[in-house]
# Entry
Amino acid sequence: MHNDFDELLNRKGTDCLKWDGCAARFPGLDTSGALPMWVADADFRAPREVVERLTQMAGFGVYGYPAPLREEFAGALKSWLHRRHKLEIKKDWVLFSPGVVPSLNIAIQTFTDEKDGIIIQPPVYYPFKRSIEANRRKAINNPLIYKDGRYLMDFDGLAEKAADKNNKMLILCSPHNPVGRVWEESELRRLRTVCAENGVLLFSDEIHSDIVFAGHTHLPALALGTEKIVTAFSMSKTFNLAGLHASAVVIPDALLRQKFRDWLRRSSMESGGSFGVQAFIAACRYGEPYLEEMLSYIEESISFAREFTAKNIPCARFVNMEGTYLAWLDFNGSGLAPDVIDKTVVEKAKVLGDLGRWFGEEGAGFVRLNFACPRAIVKQALENLQKAFQA
Ligand SMILES: Cc1ncc(COP(=O)(O)O)c(C=O)c1O
# Structure
């Protein structure tokens, strides 16, 4: 097996959310025959070494309880973070978690109380708000500023909200899904200062940290200090492993870490599932060449799409993608109402992207398209959009 990112894999009927779960996710819209470019997983095979490891395990045929999480897991992540992000961590700081959204929920339950405020910066990955509210906390919106096609954090708003003693946690999305920003050091420093000055715990979701394009560097928030911070890392976006439910949290503070670990222990989740853990380790160890190839492939798709959009879909603005494989297109220039834009994209263009309004009202009239797919799909989607918005 090689890394053929052009290969059109038939994922239909494989118990796959992206291709088999469309109708349920877009109620009221006709999704028949539409190209699925929504949920953030890739239409790519995982690296060969990961597939081989899993095949070997599957072939053994014994699927009993795994050993308590070994050094290997923490060591693999430590080495990955050192190589890819120049971040030095201690192995002791690492805990297994069955996913980043589960980590977020555990952090909310462990480090905040009911009715506490938790700050988010919409438009942002919608399970943040959902997790906050499902745990009976309050989502405190501090929207990003959208200026000249670029998104910035509203630091005045952040300072004001962090100073409110009811607000106990801030969730950072870094890089930011869906707007594609890779936060710069100066921005992260300011954010960390605001949190530190107000005793606000930072939950830094860095699931997209490996998908960063030329000219940009992901800086882990942890590189700027180890106090009051929980960082979630995962290999699931990088290597398309989301269905295996393995991720990691890194918590330098011993007390916070103990509380998080207690939650995992109580729930019998500390060790994780063997397949997820072993895939995570193999990906960290052997995945770099695959990642480099994938980044080049996606970057070419982005260049193509940016030029195509500028030339052929004048009513759309293609927001610059610094990181993540998720493109963020602004169709508000069409003059159409947001619900008409949604209908045009889904029913006329037959393109299934995440609808911008899912990410907060700031996203209305935008669509998020997943570029972790063969370029032929990106081209087809853009041609469809061109026709749909011309007519
Ligand atoms: C910012 C962000 N966090 C978390 C997740 C999901 O993580 P997990 O599947 O590990 O719960 C996603 C998936 O799209 C994401 O974009």
